[in-house]
Amino acid sequence: MSYIDLLAWVVENKNELIGCRIDNIYNLEKLDNVFIFKLHCKNSDKNLIIEPGVRINFTKYDIQKEIGNKAKSLRELIRDLVISDVQIIDKERILKIALNNGMKIIVELLPRGLLLVLDEQDKIKFSTEYKEFKDRVVKPGLPYVQPPKPNKVVVPKDILFALHLTESVNAEEEYEKLEKSIAEGKITPCIKKGINFMPIEFEGCEKGNSYNDVIDEYFLELTKQKEIQKITEKIEGEKKKLEKTIQQIEENIKEYEEKAEELRKIGKEIMEHYMEVENAIKNKEKKIKLEGKEIEIDPKLSVAKNASLYFDKAKEYAQKSKKAKETLEELKRKLNEIEIEIKKEEEGRKLSIRKKEWYEKYRWSFTTNGFLVIAGKDADQNESLVRKLLEDNDIFLHADIQGAAATIIKNPKNITEQDIYDAAVIAASYSKAWKLGLAAVDVFWVYGSQVSKSPPAGEYLPKGSFMIYGKKNYIKSVKLNLAIGFKINDSLEIVVGSENSVSAKVKNYVLISPGDELERTADRIVKILSEANSINAGKELKNEVLSILPGKSKIIKVVKETNDKQ
Question: What sequence ranges are listed for the domain NFACT RNA-binding (predicted)?
Fold first, then answer.
């Protein structure tokens, strides 16, 4: 990001950042210098990506993350603190994020930039790198010193191009006008995917909804490529070693075969010139010239035995060639396995990053005919669903047991009985019935207009509880069988629901019911579906599957069509 990019992002998002509490901090999996700050903000939770020397932006994408040493250190220092102010330092690519206890986060987007945490006296408490640079020293306890500022303003070439300017005197003036315009909020988010993005319109670009979205979209592919490169580095190293060994063995085989042929030829020549060789033996000669080539013979042995020596040596080289060929085949098989592994890793990583939809903070599913079903994960979410999302024409479902998810079918226009049953499976599965190990449970449904948070006079409704008025429609003995599959397009999405709804979307899936294991069942689901879809699964995938399981489970059915594309 350039200074203009940072300025545009801050102008657009400063108010979104101020007041946010730092809930947690992670590294991107395999990229320990890229951080995800999970923020609890006024209107919603947000994920902020900070990549020193590169970018800062909110992301809508679900990216696999881990807790590395740097993330742990940051957690200890700034977790639970609130962002009180955000400002750019000295018109440079340096952002200062002030915290409510007087500490500051410094994000340097300059080349070789750092992420630092400073105390109330601006002394360094944390840095992504500790080093003595040419113009400053970055060490714990020392005062923070900015990287040196260039002597003159350098207008980025892409800005010159966008403004149709040359590197002339007026370029700097126009750049200052652009800076002022951006600072006033005159931003036109524009992107040329895989090539460039700017807060102004430029040739061949597509306009975006926000500048943050444009930045997020642009860096999505770059992040995937970096992760793929990082995760395949070790495997690529093994591949190169193997290829070098294969090349050496192929050269050895050629050498062995040529030597064997040469020795066989000499043996034949000895027998074909029997009399000449015999005379040489009688004269105690150790060398003889045959077919214009001098060869060694043993005068103590007969002609036949001299020939046999060469034939035996030829057999030894032929045997070496045979063994080398067997080794070569084994190494080629291993190389093929490595190439398949690299491809799986690449595909798995490409699929690991995707945009999360608003409803994914709840339990969710789509019915056979595509109606959205959302259900609460706990009493708070049950309350939120009914108060904020349930409309009069929506369908509300609940398992007929104490302790169950409030479940809603959104916009159920022209809905079928199958769709309602699909939603009933979600309501039944995410209820206490699963934890009790029941095989089935009744589920009732009503329209949203029949659900109220207002109790009768003199009564109290605990959190997550509701009043239902009018007739309840019952679906008897809904089986606690939940289907799980991987839907793969440009990214990987876990689909869950009734067997009917999931089988309409994917070819490979498992069917689960209440059981005795949680971790092991999740491991088996990931293994089965990853193999069926020819991908390598990361640990985040297991965590996501675990979050979907209603409780201890067992697999009761596996459907795989591994040759079909999903």
Answer: 361-470
SS3 486: strand
- Locate 462 and state its tokens: 């605990």
532-541 pLDDT per residue, tens: 888 766 666 7
Q: H-helix or E-strand containing 73?
A: helix 69-78
Dihedral angle, C-alpha 204, 208, 214, 218, nearest 10 °: -40
Q: What are the tens digits of pLDDT across the range 261-320?
A: 999 999 999 999 999 999 999 999 999 999 888 999 999 999 999 999 999 999 999 999
For residue 407, give every residue at least 6 positions away whose Cβ sits within 8 Å of its Cβ, in sequence order, or none. Answer: 373, 374, 375, 376, 396, 397, 398, 423, 426, 427, 430
C-beta of residue 426 within 8 angstroms of C-beta of residue 363: yes
CA dihedral 549, 550, 556, 560 (to 10 degrees): -30
Contact partners, residue 310, CB within 8 Å, separation at least 6? 263, 264, 266, 267, 270
Asked if residues 365 and 426 have their Cβ atoms less than 8 Å apart, the reply is: yes
Burial environment of residue 35 by CB neighbours within 10 A (0 to 12, 13 to 18, 19 or more): buried
In one letter, which amino acid is 41?
A: C
Query: Global pTM?
Result: 0.59
Give Cα separations from 400 to 35, 110, 421, 433, 440 (angstroms): 44, 59, 14, 9, 11
**How far is it, in rounded angstroms, from Cα 55 to Cα 71?**
17
479, 441 contact by CB (below 8 A): no
